[in-house]
Amino acid sequence: MQPVENFAPRVLAWFDEHGRKSLPWQENKTPYRVWISEIMLQQTQVTTVIPYYHKFMTSFPTVEALADAEQDDVLAHWSGLGYYARARNMHKAAKMLVDEFDSEFPETVEGVCELPGIGRSTAAAILSISRGVQAAILDGNVKRVLARFHAVPTWPGEKKTENAMWDLADYYMPSERCGDYTQAMMDLGATLCTRSKPQCLICPLQSDCQARVTQDPTQFPIRKPKKAAKPEKSIQLLVLTNQQGQWLLEKRPSTGIWGGLWSLPELAPEESVVLHIEQRFATQVAVVTPLSSFRHTFSHYHLDISPSQIQIADTKLVMEGDKYQWFSQQDAMEQGLPAPVRSILANIN
Ligand code: SF4
């Protein structure tokens, strides 16, 4: 993979004409504001992120405000974005910045990488965009552009290939306009060299892009070698409803799936709902209404969910500590809920 000359100037010239310049995090580019946008944008489209970003910035305009917030409140602002470890790490990192770094981001990529949830590419994006530091990124978009431009013949997830791509990314990073270049590479990947429909005819890199001459640029980046199908798991989720119409939510443990979020009591697929509730909460079940089952897919397995709504006869449940809590329906929807739980509750009449 021999680097070519004149790469960054072409990308920057294209950016000046076609790049995105009015995204909310492109105003007042402080490290804090860029950081939040970068974390939100991981695995999530720009259009989805924008309303979340505005709301988050209104509630937590500074790193101190985020550090002071309750985790529940932070998770509630994240509810629907998924990958909740991102929000928990961000909250931890904010506390660390306030307690150990006097609320200032470190100066170097290595320093920023010490914060929870921030890897090399995100650290470089924060520092280059907010402070003009000459630090290259290698996020999914940039990997795609470089893998195509050089027709990289191996899967970029392999360490050796990844290291070679970091070398290319470093080589192409210019010494001036570092923030614009970072933004330009992200935009090029997101809007032109897209996953399924690269627009080579209007790309500033077309003249020497090696994937373009293969007639099928989408074969790059080379796919990950196939693994066995994802495992499948099944659970039942219970919407316990009392006579006031309140719902019972259960706080998840802080680690594992949906860590720290409010969820619904869960039981194994083969268990009897009535017996389970009578034994777990020492109460009588009045009516059980099965709700529509559906599949939720995580990155590493499929989860088949069978929800039921259970009307209970009295509200004096025996509950362990503050793990369970009754919420009015409106309050419940304002908590940090996993997306499938939110959709079950939203569909109850
Ligand atoms: S020429 Fe096509 S494949 Fe190559 S970088 Fe541009 S859009 Fe991507």
3D structure, described in words:
42% of the residues lie in helices and 13% in strands. It is of the alpha+beta class. It folds into two domains: 7-219, Endonuclease III, domain 1 (Orthogonal Bundle), CATH 1.10.340; 232-346, Nucleoside Triphosphate Pyrophosphohydrolase. The strands form two sheets. Strands 1, 4, 5, 6 and 7 form a five-stranded mixed beta sheet that branches. Strands 3-2-8 form a three-stranded antiparallel beta sheet. A hairpin with a 4-residue loop joins β6 (294-297) and β7 (302-312). α1 (7-18) crosses α11 and α2 packs across α8. The site of iron/sulfur cluster has 15 residues, from α9.
Distance between the amino and carboxyl termini: 59 Å
Largest sheet geometry? 5 strands, mixed
Please identify, by name, the CATH architecture of the largest domain. Orthogonal Bundle
Number of strands: 8
**Total discrete domains:** 2
What's the quick description here?
With about 350 residues, the chain is of the alpha+beta class. It has helices spanning about 5-20, 30-40, 45-60, 65-70, 70-80, 85-100, 110-115, 120-130, 140-150, 160-170, 180-190, 275-280, 330-335, 340-345, and strands spanning about 230-240, 245-250, 260-265, 265, 285-290, 295, 300-310, 325. It is about 40% helix and about 15% strand.
Reconstruct the topology from this structure:
Layout: H1 7-18, H2 31-41, H3 46-59, H4 63-68, H5 71-78, H6 85-100, H7 109-113, H8 120-131, H9 140-149, H10 159-172, H11 178-192, E1 232-241, E2 247-251, E3 262-263, E4 266-267, H12 273-281, E5 285-290, E6 294-297, E7 302-312, E8 324-327, H13 329-333, H14 339-346
Parallel strand pairs: 1-7
Antiparallel strand pairs: 1-4, 2-3, 2-8, 5-7, 6-7
The structure holds iron/sulfur cluster.
